[in-house]
C-alpha cells in the first residue's frame, strides 16, 4: 500500500501486477529471489523490493519522518503482526501485543493533538507510510480500536481512509 501511495504522490506511472501470495509466479522469483511484494523494477533493470525503499526512491523524507517510520516498522509492526496474526506466532499473547502496539498509537495521537497531520501541517510521507499499518491494527478489532480515547488518531485515520489516493490504490488490478 505505501509503495503504491508513494508512487502516486510522486506522479510516477507504473504497471501494477497483482500477486496472489499463495501462488507466486516464477516471474516474481526471477526479479526478486525473496519473492515478497512489493517489487519495483526500474527501466534500467534495478530492482527495489522493500516498500520503504520504494518510498525513499521516489519521495524526499525528513529525518523526523524517517525516525517515526523506523519506529513503526520496528516495534509497532512486531506487535501488530503478533496481535493481528497471533495464531501464526506460537506463544504470542494477542492482548499483550495489542497493549504494546497501543503505545505507538498513543504516541501518534499525541503528535496529532490540535492538528490534522503529523508534520508540517500537511499530509506527507509519514502519513502514507504509517496509515496502512494503523489501518491494519484497527481492522484486527474495529470495535475496540474505535472506543479508544485517541480523537486525533481516529480523525487522521478516517481522513486517510476517505482520501482519493487511498481509494484509488485499493482498486483491484486485473491480471
Please give a structural write-up.
By secondary structure, the protein is mainly alpha-helical. It has 2 domains: 2-58, Glutaredoxin (3-Layer(aba) Sandwich); 63-163, Glutathione S-transferase Yfyf (Class Pi), Chain A, domain 2, CATH 1.20.1050. 58% of the residues lie in helices and 2% in strands. The protein has 9 helices and 2 strands. The chain has helices at residues 2-10, 26-31, 51-58, 63-84, 94-111, 125-140, 142-146, 151-162, 164-169; strands at 40-41, 47-48. Strands 1-2 form a two-stranded antiparallel sheet. Strand 1 and strand 2 form a beta hairpin. The longest helix is centred in the middle third of the chain and has 22 residues, at 63-84. 24% of the residues are buried.
Index terms:
single chain, 175 residues, Glutaredoxin, Glutathione S-transferase Yfyf (Class Pi), Chain A, domain 2, 2 domains, two-stranded antiparallel sheet, 9 helices, globular
Mean of pLDDT: 93
* Biggest sheet strand line-up: 1-2
Helix coverage percent: 55-70%
**CATH architecture designation of the largest domain:** Up-down Bundle
Radius of gyration: 17 Å
Structural class: mainly alpha
Main β-sheet description: 2 strands, antiparallel
Uncertain residue segments: none
Q: What is the CA–CA distance across the termini?
A: 18 Å
Task: Characterize the overall form.
Answer: globular
Strand content: under 5%
What is the N-to-C succession of helices and strands? HHEEHHHHHHH
Q: What is the CATH topology assignment of the largest domain?
A: Glutathione S-transferase Yfyf (Class Pi), Chain A, domain 2
CATH class of the largest domain: Mainly Alpha
Tally of alpha and pi helices: 9
Question: How many distinct folded domains?
Answer: 2
Instruction: Give the beta-strand count.
Output: 2
Amino acid at each position: 500500500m505505501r509503495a503504491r501511495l508513494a508512487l502516486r504522490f510522486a506522479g510516477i506511472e507504473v504497471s501494477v501486477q497483482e500477486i496472489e501470495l499463495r501462488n507466486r509466479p516464477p516471474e516474481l522469483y526471477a526479479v526478486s529471489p525473496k519473492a515478497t511484494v512489493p517489487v519495483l523494477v526500474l527501466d534500467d533493470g534495478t530492482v527495489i523490493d522493500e516498500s520503504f525503499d520504494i518510498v525513499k526512491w521516489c519521495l524526499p523524507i525528513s529525518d523526523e519522518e524517517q525516525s517515526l517510520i523506523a519506529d513503526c516498522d520496528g516495534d509497532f509492526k512486531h506487535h501488530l503482526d503478533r496481535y493481528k496474526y497471533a495464531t501464526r506466532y506460537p506463544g504470542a499473547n494477542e492482548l499483550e501485543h495489542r497493549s504494546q502496539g497501543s503505545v505507538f498509537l498513543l504516541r501518534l495521537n499525541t503528535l496529532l493533538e490540535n492538528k490534522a497531520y503529523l508534520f508540517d501541517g500537511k499530509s506527507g510521507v509519514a502519513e502514507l507510510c504509517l496509515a496502512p499499518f494503523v489501518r491494519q491494527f484497527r481492522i484486527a478489532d474495529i470495535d475496540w480500536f474505535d472506543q479508544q480515547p485517541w480523537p486525533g488518531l481516529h480523525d487522521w485515520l478516517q481522513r486517510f481512509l476517505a482520501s482519493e489516493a487511498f481509494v484509488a490504490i485499493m482498486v483491484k488490478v486485473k491480471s
